[in-house]
Amino acid sequence: MSAANEPDTVFQELLAANPRPQKVRNLNALHELCRDHHATGGRDFTLPTIGKFCQDKGIFAKGRALYNEPAADYRKLIEAWARLAGPAPVKVRKELSTDEYVSRIPDPAIRMLVQSTIAERNKLKSQLNMLRSTKVLEVDRRPVVDVQPLIGNPAAGLTASEKEALAKAVSKKFLDRKGWEEIALGEIVDESGRTLFDPGFGTGLRKLLGAI
Prior knowledge:
Elements: H1 6-16, H2 21-39, H3 47-57, H4 72-85, H5 98-103, H6 108-133, H7 160-169, H8 172-178, E1 181-182, E2 188-189, E3 195-197, H9 201-208
Antiparallel strand pairs: 1-2, 2-3
């Protein structure tokens, strides 16, 4: 059996088992669907993809039907087409841009903080790149003037609603509801352990609000 004829051969073998008329119609529709998909250059014959096509064409009410035990013959036919098509192309995951990532943050207070953090990061990166491009550094050895720290709470200018929104961003109730967690150094991680906000986020925000 040549590879080019394998799907047709498998199809005829399935029909030779004298299935019920409904199954014959479904097999024929599936066979033609796979033929059209292959003719247009399609190489993805995975069950999720073919199942969606079958659902769209009305061959099955739900594409998940292909996973059921009675659908073994349908899977056998799909596998024959998959062997003819060869390996499916590898799907490259699209990386979100920074703006797209930020826009997906639903809470406006957290979105504002993230935007501020990103702006500060970009500023520091720009300064670092400038230093790297500088071939001659001038060292100022003059005495350093002692600068007194600012007096007062830097969060004093915030409105009550702004303070409440910022405090909510690191509250345990809010983090639990999101499936997030604040760990040792104040960083915020999601349920898979991926860092959402860098170390110092939680502790720094509390200091800003005068909570600690």
